[in-house]
Amino acid sequence: MMGEQNKALAAGVALLERSIEYAVGSLRIVTPDALCRDTPCSGWSLQRLLDHLGDALASLNEAAASRTVELCPASAAPRPAVANPALSVRDEATTVLGSWTALLADEPVAIGGWHVSSPVVAAVGAIEVAVHGWDVARSCGEHRPVPPVLAEELLDLAQVFVTPADRPGRFAARVGVPRTAPAQDHLLAFLGRDPNGR
After folding, report:
1. Is 123 part of a structural domain of the chain?
2. Is the residue at 58 inside a domain?
3. Which residues form the Mycothiol-dependent maleylpyruvate isomerase metal-binding domain (predicted)?
């Protein structure tokens, strides 16, 4: 049984690694001039999106290091103002990768009173990181598709983890796309984004 758990952890970490590699490519194109631009996340500027992505990555680091994540940390300090926050988010992503690849065993992570398996935490993190990587690129006016195989895997997982209770709070309503659209478009549409819009 332990061998199967560790295989699941390795698969989750590998998925997270591929998502981070994709997102880092998007972070490289961010310039300070782009920070005030709108994003595919309605009502969010690129600056706010980068702050959110940085917080998500910090939570992934916390999960790997302490096996616990505080949903609303009382002492959370605001992020320091920097000329290009994408650089610090990129550093955080690199730290996440190191933290998760160093894990040797699948131990549960305590999140808001619930215990969640490490592979599930890694998989949910992979969805968030990759999709926000797409958001960042679109905000900068770049076309950077999510790699097809990665998009297919993330879509399968998103359909398990994202429920009607998550809308409209965490995700906008699902967007319609043709059945023949690529996996990336189905992933983005499922998570409330227009694959052809901004």
Report:
1. yes
2. yes
3. 27-137
**pLDDT grade, residue 135 (50/70/90)?**
very high
The average confidence (pLDDT) of the chain is: 90
Q: Residue 155: is it exposed, middle or buried by C-beta count within 10 angstroms (0-12/13-18/19+)?
A: buried
Q: Per the domain annotation, does 191 fall within a domain?
A: no
Beta bridge partners of 109: 116
CB–CB of 146/184 below 8 Å?
Answer: yes
Domain span holding position 49: 2-167
Domains: count for the chain: 1
Report the C-alpha gap between 198 and 39 in whole angstroms: 7
Average pLDDT over residues 22-47: 95
> To 10 degrees, what angle do helices 85-101 and 118-139 make?
160
pTM, two decimal places:
0.90
164's CB contacts (< 8 A; 6+ apart) are none
CATH value at residue 13: 1.20.120.450
| pLDDT tens, residue by residue, 77-108 | 555 667 789 999 999 999 999 999 888 778 88
The rounded distance, in Å, linking the Cα atoms of 103 and 169 is: 32
Q: In whole angstroms, what is the distance from residue 10 CA to residue 179 CA?
A: 32
For residue 75, what pLDDT is reported?
46
Distances from the Cα of 98 to the Cαs of 46, 95, 104, 164, in angstroms? 26, 5, 12, 34
